[in-house]
Design brief:
InterPro entries: SEST-like, SGNH_hydro, SGNH_hydro_sf. By secondary structure, this protein is of the alpha/beta class. It is built from eight helices and four strands.
């Protein structure tokens, strides 16, 4: 069983699954994991733009019921990738974009002495993972639960000549992505479920990497990832491999 947002859905990466209107890819990491491990009864309810509230309430995408509706008492495995939309990660990246970016220009990163509003939002969001885990356990008490972190998006200082982000802004974006993944790991450990470290698996293959090794793009210039900060098809394969390693651990 796969729950989550566009990072898990592989939104708009072709070929699409053809199920519903969530833009779910047929080669997203949950599907690749299910195929590799020969999981017969596999259900993928991941959906682009999903927030944690969409686990229990009808989603804004037409014909997409609450994701938790798919959970069963006999569900054995649940992967969960959620939180980016709740903290408005893509909106943050969009606010940072500057076509004239330099190594020192700053569009979105707080200046010294300014409050880190995004960081505060991430910390405040942490209890939602506790609620989500409890909700899964209540519906699927036998399930092995994996909380999946977010990919490494862009290296410190960025690469202004290749991506339209100033140095401080690139550093800030990645700091917030890393903070969110740390929160996910902390809540997984606190609740006795497993954490999948996607950041380590994708580090060095960020938006500043060469086209052949790039797994994640900030601005979609690679022809594969269609939304900012999201993994491309190769990134989804890396995420699948990382989940499988965790399952075999």
């Amino acid at each position: 069983m796969a729950l989550g947002d566009s990072y898990s859905a592989g939104t708009a990466i072709l070929p699409l699954s053809g199920k519903g209107q969530c833009g779910t890819s047929a080669i997203n990491y949950p599907s690749l994991v299910a195929k590799k491990l020969r999981i017969k009864n596999f259900t993928d309810v991941t959906c682009g733009a999903a927030k944690v509230g969409d686990f229990t309430k009808p989603q804004p995408v037409p014909s997409a019921p609450p994701q938790f509706n798919a959970l069963r008492k006999d569900t054995q495995l649940v992967t969960v990738g959620i939180g980016g939309n709740d903290i408005k990660l893509v909106e943050l990246a969009a606010s940072c974009i500057n076509p004239a970016a330099t190594a020192t220009s700053r569009n979105c990163a707080p200046r010294p002495g300014q409050k880190d509003k995004v960081g505060a939002t991430i910390d405040a969001f942490a209890p939602q993972y506790d609620k989500a885990i409890a909700g899964i356990r209540a519906r699927s008490p036998k399930a092995r639960i994996l909380l999946v972190g977010y990919p490494f998006a862009i290296r410190q200082g960025g690469c202004p000549g290749r991506q339209p982000l100033g140095g401080p802004d690139a550093t800030y974006i990645q700091d917030k992505v890393s903070q969110l993944s740390r929160v996910i790991k902390e809540r997984a450990e606190a609740n006795g479920v497993e954490y999948v470290d996607i950041e380590s698996a994708t580090k060095g293959h960020d938006a500043c990497a060469g086209a052949e090794s790039q797994l994640v793009g900030v601005v979609p210039t690679d022809g594969q990832s269609l939304t900012p900060l999201h993994p491309n098809a190769a990134g989804q394969r890396t995420m699948a491999d990382t989940v499988i390693k965790q399952l075999e651990h």
